[in-house]
């Protein structure tokens, strides 16, 4: 991104553009700048709410919809069973009925016989809609249309997102409500925001102000708090905010940035009552072998992202997997019911940059403006590959091996692990990045069923717990919201079949075929053809390419 474009972005949406994967000093503390007066051309640089759902988009909701003949993976961790018929009335699942026996023809004339609509999914698999606990909707320059991310998420089976944040507060509140009313083609939205976002009460200068903002947020459509542990977010401020959030039913999630970890590592945040640790930050710092802080080189500079991300992985050999400190850390987090949301996908380019840059989907589904954002620069956050070496990638592979062990050990001892993607940075595209997270959890040691459990019921519980609620989605059973992913291939056999670009397989007669991709995504009783959603996304990308060709940019 050029200097002028960067300046435009800063003027237009500073706080939002920075509240992202990497965390920056300003995101948590200067939300008021998002509303700063700006010159006319700059004023256009805003996020665009999704257009109203067209009449030809999606089927339903119906008085009664039946999905026929599927094999069900229900999201609890239970093994598949099928064939079943799934009965949906309005936006709720009302029954799951055995429809026959494997290897025998399906029974004919199966009840219910009074459906308004039937979807024949014979031979397909159904799962609960996926829950992505770490998303952003784009920014005014790289990807201004929320429709773009929404359709990529839905096309990959994501029916619920936790925006941390999705968009500036006012837009996020509005989009959440429009989605709930079925007015737009979008997943269910949870609106998490940083301290001080959206209000006119000024910066968070201490614990009292933090509590005041949380009280304001609870009344103004905020579901939870995203911490970056930077600037005004001192340990005292975060502790007060977590305490107030627990009283008022708000969730909490922390990206514990390197400058903040000295004051409060992940264990200390868990002690204070934090709900979710997102990314990897703060875990290993809670169990270092020698000393309390990572041994950074003397020329480390947090604002130099090549340094920041180059050094992040170097902590890998300062911890000992399975050591007493390792186990004690995990036991402490489990006792506090802390959710680990590792978002391994968003930093995966660090261990194999060429793969991330050249992923199959970029040429079709990545907006040129988003691709511009990904290209290395010193001032776009997450574009830190100035001179990325073999040594850097080796360090990240070593780091991932231990981070994966940590996440898997936590799951094995009964800790909750969920799925988040943080796409829109570091060569990761919405939806596609989420599926990669499923693959990475399997690499970490999760069985495919454990991966699905993390992606569905675990995420739902993490969203419901702070409100003192029982989840209303995330499991396929009567009474739950009708949020489903319907896929032609068995996803347990190969998560790659969930990618929108499908999976290449050689046929029996020696021809390369593309198989898979989600077939239907059902959200609150509305069934979307995933291929049609992807076609819409491709049209958005093609339109921008044509505009660029016309203007010679
Ligand atoms: Zn993020």
Summary keywords:
8-stranded mixed sheet, binds zinc ion, 553 residues, alpha/beta, globular, 8-stranded parallel sheet, 16% strand
The number of helical elements comes to 17
User: What small molecules are bound in this structure?
Assistant: zinc ion
Q: What percentage of residues falls in helices of 4 or more residues? A: 25-40%
Shape: globular
Averaged pLDDT: 92
Strand content: 15-25%
Main sheet properties: 8 strands, mixed
Terminal CA distance: 13 Å
Give a description of the structure.
- With 553 residues, this protein is α/β, with parallel strands linked by helices.
- The chain is 34% helix and 16% strand.
- It has 17 helices and 18 strands.
- It has helices spanning 3-18, 40-43, 146-155, 169-180, 207-218, 235-248, 258-261, 266-271, 305-312, 324-335, 353-357, 362-365, 368-374, 390-412, 432-444, 448-464, 530-551, and strands at 65-72, 81-89, 92-98, 117-120, 125-128, 130-135, 158-163, 188-193, 224-227, 251-254, 276-278, 339-341, 416-417, 484-487, 503-506, 512-515, 520-523, 526-529.
- Strands 1, 2, 3, 4, 5, 14, 17 and 18 form an eight-stranded mixed β-sheet that branches. An eight-stranded parallel β-sheet has the order 6-7-8-9-10-11-12-13.
- Helix 6 links the parallel strand 9 and strand 10 (251-254).
- Helix 3 (146-155) runs antiparallel to helix 17 (530-551) and helix 15 (432-444) crosses helix 16.
- It is globular.
- The chain starts with a helix and ends with a helix.
- The model is unreliable at 1-43 (pLDDT under 50).
- Residues 20-21, 134, 136, 164, 422 line the site of zinc ion.
């Amino acid at each position: 991104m050029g200097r002028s474009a960067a300046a435009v972005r800063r003027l237009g949406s500073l706080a939002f553009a920075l509240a992202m994967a990497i965390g920056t000093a300003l995101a948590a503390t200067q939300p008021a700048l998002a509303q700063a007066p700006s010159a006319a051309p700059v004023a256009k640089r805003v996020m665009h709410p999704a257009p109203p759902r067209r009449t030809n988009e999606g089927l339903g909701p119906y008085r009664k919809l039946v999905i026929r003949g599927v094999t069900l993976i229900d999201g609890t961790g239970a093994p598949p069973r099928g064939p079943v018929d799934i009965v949906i009335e309005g936006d709720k699942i009302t029954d799951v009925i055995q429809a026959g026996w494997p290897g025998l023809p399906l029974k004919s004339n199966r009840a219910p016989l009074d459906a308004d609509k039937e979807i024949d999914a014979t031979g397909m698999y159904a799962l609960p809609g996926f829950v992505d606990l770490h998303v952003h909707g784009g920014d005014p320059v790289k990807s201004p249309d929320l429709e773009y991310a929404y359709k990529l998420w839905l096309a990959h089976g994501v029916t619920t997102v936790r925006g941390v944040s999705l968009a500036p507060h006012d837009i996020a509140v509005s989009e959440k409500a429009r989605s709930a009313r079925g007015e737009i083609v979008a997943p269910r939205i949870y609106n998490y925001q940083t301290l001080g976002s959206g209000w006119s009460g000024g910066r968070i200068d201490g614990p009292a102000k933090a509590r005041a903002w949380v009280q304001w947020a609870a009344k103004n459509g905020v579901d939870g708090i995203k911490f970056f542990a930077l600037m005004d977010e001192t340990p005292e401020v975060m502790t007060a905010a977590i305490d107030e959030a627990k009283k008022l039913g708000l969730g909490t999630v922390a990206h514990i940035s390197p400058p903040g970890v000295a004051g409060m590592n992940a264990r200390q945040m868990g002690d204070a009552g934090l709900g979710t640790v997102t990314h990897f930050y703060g875990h290993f710092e809670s169990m270092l072998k020698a000393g309390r802080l990572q041994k950074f080189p003397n020329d480390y500079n947090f604002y130099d992202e090549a340094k920041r991300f180059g050094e992040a992985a170097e902590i890998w050999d300062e911890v000992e997997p399975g050591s007493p400190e390792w186990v004690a850390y995990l036991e402490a987090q489990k006792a506090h019911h802390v959710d680990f949301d590792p978002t391994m996908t968003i930093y995966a380019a660090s261990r194999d940059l060429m793969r991330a840059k050249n992923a199959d989907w970029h040429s079709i589904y990545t907006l040129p403006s988003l691709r511009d954002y990904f290209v290395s620069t010193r001032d776009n956050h997450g574009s830190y590959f100035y001179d990325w070496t073999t040594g850097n990638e080796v360090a990240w592979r070593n780091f991932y091996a231990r981070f994966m062990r940590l996440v898997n050990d936590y799951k094995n001892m009964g800790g909750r692990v969920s799925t988040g993607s943080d796409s829109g940075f570091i060569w990761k595209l919405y939806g596609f990045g989420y599926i990669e997270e499923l693959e990475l959890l399997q690499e970490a040691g999760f069985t495919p069923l454990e991966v699905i459990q993390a992606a569905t019921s675990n995420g739902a519980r993490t969203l419901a717990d702070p409100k003192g609620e029982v989840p209303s989605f995330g499991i396929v059973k009567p009474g739950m919201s009708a949020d489903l992913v319907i896929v032609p291939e068995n996803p347990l056999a190969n998560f790659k079949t969930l990618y929108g670009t499908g999976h290449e397989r050689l046929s029996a007669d020696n021809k390369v075929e593309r198989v898979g991709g989600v077939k239907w995504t059902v959200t609150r009783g509305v069934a979307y053809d995933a291929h049609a959603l992807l076609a819409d996304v491709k049209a958005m990308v093609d339109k921008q390419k044509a505009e660029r060709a016309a203007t010679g940019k």
